[in-house]
């Protein structure tokens, strides 16, 4: 193992000593030496299997058959989750063949940031993660279950399912993906049309045609945003079957992997004699592996908050500095849009996860001897799944990348740095993704233009007021102010100005999409404006230095001048009402800072 990574891991273990010990004691107390339903009264149990068929009722009366919970984020509006419609029946049949019973325990909400981008509903996006965690907890709270299967893919869904899974850490848990949609209009071309529309060069008809050609069928969006970053992280943590992440939906291989995952869940229960609860399987080393893989692939900045949140649910304390220091130790090994031209299907064709695992293991960048749902050791994840006369098998991956513009080697990486940096200065602490930035755009020193809503920037852009070098300061977008919406609608506008030769950057206490990266953006700023962060004192015209090379984020204004300024006040202006936002006030007020996971479920 690379010594820098070992040192950071040791630091995390030491920091987490008390919380991890308390967590492990909690899940030990929650486990059962027999089936969990054995602790239910006759009336409880009768309610629990009242709707089951005769055979399942007979199995559930005994103590030798496991009951596996199915938790699904299925809905048929969202392309990534539509394939899950058929999974419960497939899973139930596979679990029954393995001698158990599977019951559909809970459906959880699944919203799409692509649909809500720039809309009022986006203010609910981050908070939906906590709702998903709580919804999952409600489903599992019946204490009928000996293991769980989690069906989810996109931005907040997988992190929410992970938080709940860690909370119910005494249960063996397997995650089942559904796979990416086939490649459509290339992501780079889609981005080009968006910028053309921002400039007024094409109309909405042309824009919709381009968007529809990119997002065109069932499956996950093909760029390497938060959804596909989620899948990578879950597989690296050993919670998927090897190679399961990026197999297309509605294929025989996808279905066989789903059956195999269902059967595997039954092999990890207390009754199997091979008990492996998720709370013990996932440890500090597993979490470090997840961060390393995220950095090595230039994954979504949203995972900085999500990993912190689900790790905390398992008693493991991670912070932004850990991401920063690991990024310095981890080379960039893939170029997947927005970090390159390829989409996730092309990554898969170039060697995919199996080849990535091999590079990470041989390069001493991940801990190989961690537990997985398939047993101890990540080496088994260097094999890829195939069908041989209809039978699911795993075979060796390719010897080397089939496209060295997509997957590089540790010996010759695309960059020596993972592409994520913590920004620090008098404005506070934030993160910046540098892996997608163009040469010459890492350092921006320019006057601020202050906005308190992303739509104000659109208005200024349309009026031609932004034809200059500037740092866009978009404040009062933090967790407590607005629920931390993504500001991805700003990317085409700032990209147009960047292409015109202007030096532009963004500083915000909000988020950017996992698909962002072209424009230097210091995001997740803490403390946020509503918590008295210095960003609330910035005025248009103030000089700001955004240095992605050194990690400096500084408001270049005299301290005496800053001390004399009043703090800007948040103007609610209806942002807490409409589209259901009025229901989330209690949660919004209790969200922690971005650096502690922007979560309402734990003490800060």
UniProtKB/TrEMBL annotation:
Enzymatic class: lyase
GO cellular component, one term: cytosol
Pfam families found in the cross-reference section: ILV_EDD_C, ILVD_EDD_N
Single GO term (MF): 4 iron, 4 sulfur cluster binding
Upper classification of the organism: Bacteria, Pseudomonadati, Pseudomonadota, Gammaproteobacteria, Alteromonadales
Keyword Metal-binding: yes
Reaction catalyzed: 6-phospho-D-gluconate = 2-dehydro-3-deoxy-6-phospho-D-gluconate + H2O
Keyword terms of this UniProt record: 4Fe-4S, Carbohydrate metabolism, Gluconate utilization, Iron, Iron-sulfur, Lyase, Magnesium, Metal-binding
InterPro entries: 6-phosphgluc_deHydtase, Dihydro-acid_dehy_C, DiOHA_6PGluconate_deHydtase_CS, ILV_EDD_C, ILV_EDD_N, IlvD/EDD_N
EC number: 4.2.1.12
Transmembrane segments: none
Organism: Colwellia psychrerythraea (strain 34H / ATCC BAA-681) (Vibrio psychroerythus)
Cofactor note: Binds 1 [4Fe-4S] cluster.
Pathway membership, UniProt: Carbohydrate metabolism; Entner-Doudoroff pathway
Binding site for [4Fe-4S] cluster: 154, 221
Family: Belongs to the IlvD/Edd family.
Domain Dihydroxy-acid/6-phosphogluconate dehydratase N-terminal: 68-378
Cofactors (names): [4Fe-4S] cluster
Role: Catalyzes the dehydration of 6-phospho-D-gluconate to 2-dehydro-3-deoxy-6-phospho-D-gluconate.
Span of domain Dihydroxy-acid/6-phosphogluconate dehydratase C-terminal: 405-598
GO biological process, one term: D-gluconate metabolic process
Record bears the keyword Magnesium: yes
Top-rank taxon, per record: Bacteria
Name assigned to this protein: Phosphogluconate dehydratase
């Amino acid at each position: 193992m690379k010594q820098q990574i070992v040192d950071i891991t040791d630091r995390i273990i030491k920091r987490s000593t008390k919380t991890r010990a308390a967590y492990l004691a909690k899940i030990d107390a929650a486990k059962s030496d027999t089936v969990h339903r054995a602790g239910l009264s006759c009336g409880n149990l009768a309610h629990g299997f009242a709707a089951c068929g005769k055979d399942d009722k007979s199995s559930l009366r005994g103590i030798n058959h496991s009951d596996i919970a199915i938790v699904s984020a299925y809905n048929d509006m969202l392309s990534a989750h539509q394939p899950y419609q058929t999974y419960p029946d497939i899973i139930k049949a596979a679990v029954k063949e393995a001698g158990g019973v599977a019951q559909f325990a809970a459906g959880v909400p699944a919203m799409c940031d692509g649909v809500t981008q720039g809309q009022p509903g986006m203010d609910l996006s981050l908070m939906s993660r906590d709702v998903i965690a709580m919804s999952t907890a409600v489903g599992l709270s019946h204490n009928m279950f000996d293991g769980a299967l989690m069906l989810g893919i996109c931005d907040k869904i997988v992190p929410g399912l992970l938080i709940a899974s860690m909370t119910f850490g005494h249960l063996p848990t397997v995650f089942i993906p559904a796979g990416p949609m086939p490649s459509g209009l290339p992501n780079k071309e889609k981005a080009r049309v968006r910028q053309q529309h921002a400039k007024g060069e094409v109309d909405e008809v042309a824009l919709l045609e381009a968007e529809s050609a990119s997002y065109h069928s069932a499956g996950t969006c093909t760029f390497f945003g938060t959804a596909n970053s989620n899948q990578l992280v879950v597989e690296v943590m050993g919670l998927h079957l090897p190679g399961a992440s990026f197999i297309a939906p509605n294929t025989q291989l996808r279905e066989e992997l789903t059956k195999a995952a269902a059967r595997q869940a039954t092999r990890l229960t207390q009754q199997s004699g091979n008990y492996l609860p998720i709370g013990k399987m996932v440890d500090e080393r597993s979490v470090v592996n997840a961060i390393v893989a995220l950095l090595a692939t230039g994954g979504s900045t949203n995972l900085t908050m999500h990993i912190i949140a689900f790790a905390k649910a398992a008693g493991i304390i991670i912070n932004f500095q850990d991401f920063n220091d690991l990024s310095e130790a981890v080379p960039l090994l893939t170029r997947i849009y927005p970090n390159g031209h390829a989409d996730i299907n092309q990554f898969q064709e170039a060697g995919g996860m199996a080849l990535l695992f091999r590079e990470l293991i041989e390069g001493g960048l991940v801990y190989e001897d961690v537990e997985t749902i398939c047993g101890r050791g990540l080496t088994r994840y260097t094999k890829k799944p195939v069908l041989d006369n209809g039978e699911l098998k795993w075979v060796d991956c390719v010897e080397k990348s089939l496209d060295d513009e997509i997957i590089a080697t540790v010996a010759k990486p695309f960059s020596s740095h993972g592409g994520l940096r913590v920004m620090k200065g008098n404005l506070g602490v934030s993160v910046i993704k540098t892996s997608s930035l163009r040469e010459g755009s890492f350092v921006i020193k320019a006057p601020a233009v202050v906005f308190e809503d992303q739509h104000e920037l659109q208005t200024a852009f349309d009026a031609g007021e932004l034809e200059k070098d500037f740092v866009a300061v978009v404040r009062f977008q933090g967790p407590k102010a607005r629920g931390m919406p993504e500001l991805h609608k700003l990317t085409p506008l700032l990209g147009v100005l960047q292409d015109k030769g202007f030096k532009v950057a963004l500083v915000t206490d909000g988020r950017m999409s996992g698909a962002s990266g072209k424009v230097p953006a210091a995001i997740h700023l803490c403390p946020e404006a509503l918590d008295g962060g210095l960003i609330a004192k910035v005025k248009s015209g103030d000089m700001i230095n955004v240095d992605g090379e050194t990690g400096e984020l500084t408001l270049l204004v005299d301290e005496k001048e800053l001390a004399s300024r009043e703090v800007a006040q948040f103007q609610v202006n209806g942002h807490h009402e409409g589209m259901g936002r009025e229901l989330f006030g209690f949660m919004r007020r209790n969200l922690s800072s971005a650096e502690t996971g922007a979560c309402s479920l734990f003490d800060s």
